[in-house]
Design goal:
Radius of gyration: 18 Å
Shape: globular
Number of helices: 8
Distance between the termini: 25 Å
Order of helices and strands: HHHHHHHH
Strand content: under 5%
Oligomer: single chain
Length: 190
Amino acid sequence: MELLIIGLVVWVVAHLIPVAAPNLRAALAGKLGEMPYKGLFALTILGSVGLMVMGWRSIESVTLLYDIYSYVAFPGLIAVLIGFVLIAASILPSNFRRLVRHPQLVGFSLWATAHLLMNGDLRAVTLFGGLLGWALVTILLLNKRDGEFTPPAKVLPHKGVMVAALGFTLFIVAVLGHEYLSGVNLSSRG
């Protein structure tokens, strides 16, 4: 559990520095240079994900806190799919950004919430609850920092189709690679 928690803390701290401590981020980027800072940030995030995955896989005894999987499995999968579409909306321009201020964080929140509901063991509650908390705090901090939301200009509707296609593709890749990354076989659930 320690590796999972350390990875989660590293993820949260690394992501919160640019939002909660922009002066620290600017100082680090000024000292290292912008590209080396971004490289260090990327390596830190990859390292945190690696720690979370290793921590997840190292936990052999699973303490079950709740089991509502049979009630939330289908809505949870839909939430994950919508989450991936919103994450895709943060990558490609579309009118989704006119409706959702922080599509990547909202999509990530849907993903984390679905996983939190579908997995009631202690390691899942720790991981997905922590990631959900980070995403929600980040949304609040960004909204406070940036003030009132001004939707971007409209774009052509076909851009939304491209976003949806990318979101569906990401969803399919995540489902097919789920067991490899997490060690959890989705076909064995239910």
